[in-house]
């Protein structure tokens, strides 16, 4: 089996996209695509990054007779887990990497509380994307629909709504395309992240003294004005139920 075939096999076995692998290895998506398609030869640095990422050896990636690394399902067979814990881990395998951190707390809770939930819930979602950049015009958006998401039990979702992030100003905490949970009953305090509206523009930012702060240093802070209003505190991310 060629190195290109091995890379594709490893990626598909873990239900990853090429973009996720590229990000995990610190390389561009286009370069990874060329590696996997055989359009570009893998050098030693790239081989080492991929071997570390998959927790395997360079020999295995080169097609030498080395046993493949165990899948998560195979590793789970070595542990005495409850049905709830297995359910969380099975979901962890399928879910996009950007949503996995939100499951860790739920997995830990499941170990202590066998009756922990991992169910599908329907939450109100705005068709407007909230900006993690310089602002998104929101005045014309007033249509909300309820869409399915995975409730891991990590947050109390009663009364919450969901927004989709547009932009990169809140990286590395939140990324473009992330779905975030917002509790409109909680007002963000200094050092906390919330949803803020200035005029007709909506933002997801950290509240600091006198300004709205971006975690990405390439963005300037936005001064608070009398028109700035809070629309709730951001609790974290939530995964669409398509992964359930």
How would you sum up this structure, described in words?
The chain has 244 residues and is of the alpha+beta class. The protein folds into 3 domains: 3-61, lambda repressor-like DNA-binding domains (434 Repressor (Amino-terminal Domain)); 72-112, no CATH class; 119-243, Umud Fragment, subunit A. Helices cover 29% and strands 25% of the residues. The protein has helices at 3-13, 18-25, 29-37, 44-53, 58-61, 72-76, 83-94, 101-112, and strands at residues 119-131, 136-137, 144-151, 161-166, 179-183, 193-198, 201-208, 211-213, 222-223, 229-237. A hairpin with a 2-residue loop joins strand 7 (201-208) and strand 8 (211-213). The longest helix has 12 residues, at 83-94. The radius of gyration is 21 Å and the shape is globular.
CATH H-level name of the largest domain... which superfamily? Umud Fragment, subunit A
Helical content band: 25-40%
Structural class: alpha+beta
Q: What is the makeup of the main sheet?
A: 10 strands, mixed
Overall average residue pLDDT: 77
Summarize the structure.
The protein is an alpha+beta fold. 29% of the residues lie in helices and 25% in strands.
Task: List descriptors.
8 helices; alpha+beta; 3 domains; 244 residues
């Amino acid at each position: 089996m060629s190195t290109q075939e091995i890379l594709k096999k490893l990626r598909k076995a873990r239900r990853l996209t090429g973009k996720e692998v590229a990000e995990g290895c610190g390389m561009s998506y286009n370069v990874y695509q060329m590696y996997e398609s055989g359009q570009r030869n893998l050098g030693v640095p790239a081989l080492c990054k991929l071997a570390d990422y998959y927790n395997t050896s360079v020999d295995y990636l080169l097609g030498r007779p080395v046993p493949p690394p165990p899948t998560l399902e195979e590793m789970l067979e070595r542990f005495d887990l409850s049905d709830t814990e297995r359910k969380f881990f099975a979901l962890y395998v399928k879910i996009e990497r950007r949503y996995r951190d939100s499951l860790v707390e739920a997995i830990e809770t499941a170990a202590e509380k066998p009756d922990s939930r991992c169910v599908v819930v329907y939450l109100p979602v705005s068709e407007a994307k909230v900006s993690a950049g310089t602002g998104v015009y929101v005045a014309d958006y007033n249509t909300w629909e309820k869409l399915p998401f995975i409730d891991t039990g990590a947050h109390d979702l009663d009364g919450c709504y969901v927004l989709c992030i547009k932009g990169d100003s809140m990286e590395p905490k939140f990324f473009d395309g992330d779905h975030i949970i917002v509790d409109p009953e909680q007002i963000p305090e200094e050092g906390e992240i919330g949803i803020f509206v200035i005029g007709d523009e909506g933002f997801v930012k950290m509240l600091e003294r006198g300004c709205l702060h971006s975690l990405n240093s390439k963005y300037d802070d936005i001064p608070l004005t009398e028109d700035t209003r809070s629309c709730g505190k951001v609790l974290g991310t939530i995964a669409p139920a398509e992964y359930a």
